[in-house]
Protein: Endoribonuclease YbeY
Amino acid sequence: MPAITFHEEDISYKLKNKTAVRKWITDTIIAEGYKLSELTYIFCTDEYLLQINRQYLNHDTYTDIITFDNSEEEGLIVGDIFISIERIRENAGKFNVTDADELHRVLIHGALHLLGYGDKSPADKKKMTSKEDFYLDKRGF
Structure:
């Protein structure tokens, strides 16, 4: 059965509107022509995510999100997405948005990575932001 789950590592954090968020992300995956198998979001601290960044990506920088694509079949979503709640809160203040809106942007950003969208080049980043905005507007909560 397709599943989106939420966990915490090194932090206590409870996502609001879990059922609505699951449906929104699942609807996004389907709209992009993919099938959902298993998607796990792990909310964590800056330090926890920094260690993952160092260990798996050889980057020694703080980040808000790291996405691991674990799928072995084309068109099937299987992944783990780590999100620093501390980065979300700091970025929400920096961008003058609510913590919830920033978290939702990052949640969908991770899903979009699994759907094949990149953000390394300026053109890819522009497309990614456009897709984020599009799906953020689809939230019904």
User: Anything to note?
Assistant: The chain has a mean pLDDT of 97. Strands lie at 3-9, 35-44, 65-69, 76-84.
